[in-house]
C-alpha cells in the first residue's frame, strides 16, 4: 500500500476507545441519563449492540476486532491455549501468538501513525509506525513494555506508579479493589491524554480493562436478583460510580481530540450475573467419561489430579466457558478415542450437556459449539467442544473431586459476573453538536459484528479492505 502524499489533505483522525466488558444494557438503558458523554456520542452518531467472538473473551476478542479475523483463523481460543497434545501443555496467548496483520500494521504500511495503549495481546511489544504501551498481560514495569523502548521512561514520568491491571481482582478485599480500580484507571487515561496531546498520530486505540474487573468484583452488590446479593451493601453503587468515572475520563480525552475526528467506543463483550459454577470434570466423571486413580481431597485442577488416562474419554478446562477435549488416539499421549469415533462421541456428549437441568428441574440452557463448524479455518489446537453453561450464566469449573457439580462458589476466587455475547459500539464524528436531549433513549442502530470493526477503520483511511476480511464498514449514519 502506498504511503500518503504530502500534497493530499489529511484524513481526520480516528480514535477507538475500548471499554473491556462494557455492558450495553447498562450504558444504553439503565444509566442512559447518567452517562452524558457516552450518551452525547451515541445521539450524534450511530450506536447499538456488537456481537462478539465465540468465545466472548478478552483474548481473542480484541485481536479479532483489530485484525478482522475469527478465533479459528487466529488460532487463539482464550487466554490459555493448548500448545500440544500433552495433557498439561497450556500457554498464555501473548503477542507472539498473533500471526496476522493488525490495524496498526496495515495503517503503518500506508504511512499512517498509530498510538496503541493497553490493547490486549500486545505484550511483548512489537514494532509499529507510532507508539505502543502494552496490555494487562504485562507482568510489570520491570520488563520492556513500550515501542519504541525509550518510551518507557516517558510513561513512568507521566504516571510514576503505572500499573497494567488491578492485582488479584478476585478478592474479598473489596475496599482495596475499588481503590485500585479508580487509581489505575485514572493513570491509564492520564497517559493516553498525554500521548494524544504530545505525539503525532492518525489512529489511536486504547483499551481500559477496569470495566471488566469492576463487573467481576461487584456485580452481586448491584443486582438484587443475584444469588449472592447483599441488600444494603456499601458497594451497591460501585459499578455505577465506576461507569460515571469512565464517562468523565472519556470527556476529558475527547476535549483533546481535533474537530472532525471519528470516535468509536466499543466493548469486546458484555456482562451478566453469574448464577454459579458447573464442575465440568466432576460431571464427566459422573458420566463415566473421566476416570481417576485417586480422588483428590480437596478438589484439584484436573491437570494436578491422578487421572487414569488409559480409561478417560474426555476432560475439560474451567473458565468463562467450558472447553472439552477428547483423549484422542494419535494426538494425546495415552489417547483411547479412535479418530473415526470422535464425531460420534462428541455428538453424544453434546446431547447430554444440552439436556442438563438445574437442581430445581429447569433446563439449564447449555449451548455447545464445534470449532471446525463455526470458524472459517481452525489453526493450532482448539478444544474439541466449547460449552456455554446456562448460555454463559454459569462459569465452567475445572476442578475435579468432591462430587459436587453445581456450586455458588467460584474455584478461582470470588466472582459475581460472567461474560455475555453482546458488547456495544458507538460511532460518531467530533464535528457535531454535543448537546444531550432529554427525550429518552434514541433508536439504536442495527446489531453489528466484531468483524466489522477493522473494515470500518480501513474505509475511514481510504484503504482497500483485503478479501480475507469478511466484515462490513459501519457507517456513521444509519
From the N-terminal CA to the C-terminal CA, the straight-line distance is: 30 Å
| CATH architectural label of the largest domain | 3-Layer(aba) Sandwich
Structural class: alpha/beta
Write down the overall geometry: globular
Strand arrangement within the widest β-sheet reads 7-6-5-8-1-9-23-2-24
**Topology, number of strands:** 24
What is the CATH topology classification name of the largest domain? Alkaline Phosphatase, subunit A
Estimated radius of gyration: 23 Å
The number of helical elements comes to 13
Number of domains: 2
Q: Specify the CATH homologous superfamily of the largest domain.
A: Alkaline Phosphatase, subunit A
Mean pLDDT reading: 94
Proportion in β-strands: 15-25%
**Regions with little confidence, pLDDT below 50 for 5+ residues:** 1-7
* Largest sheet, strands/sense/barrel: 9 strands, mixed
What's the level 1 CATH class of the largest domain?
Answer: Alpha Beta
Q: Percentage of helical residues?
A: 25-40%
Keywords:
single chain; 478 residues; alpha/beta; 2 domains; nine-stranded mixed sheet; four-stranded antiparallel sheet
Gist?
This protein is α/β, with parallel strands linked by helices and about 475 residues long. Helices cover about 25% and strands about 20% of the residues.
Per-chain topology:
Elements: E1 14-19, H1 24-30, H2 36-43, E2 46-51, H3 58-67, H4 71-74, E3 80-82, E4 90-92, H5 103-109, E5 114-117, E6 130-133, E7 146-147, H6 151-158, H7 174-198, E8 203-208, H8 210-222, H9 238-254, E9 262-266, E10 270-273, E11 276-279, H10 280-286, E12 292-294, E13 300-301, E14 306-307, E15 314-317, E16 322-326, H11 342-354, E17 367-369, H12 371-374, E18 385-388, E19 394-397, E20 399-400, E21 406-407, E22 417-420, E23 422-429, E24 448-449, H13 453-460
Parallel strand pairs: 1-8, 1-9, 2-24, 5-6, 5-8, 11-19
Antiparallel strand pairs: 2-23, 3-4, 6-7, 9-23, 10-22, 11-21, 12-14, 13-20, 15-16, 16-18, 17-18
Helix pairs in contact: 7-8, 7-9, 8-9
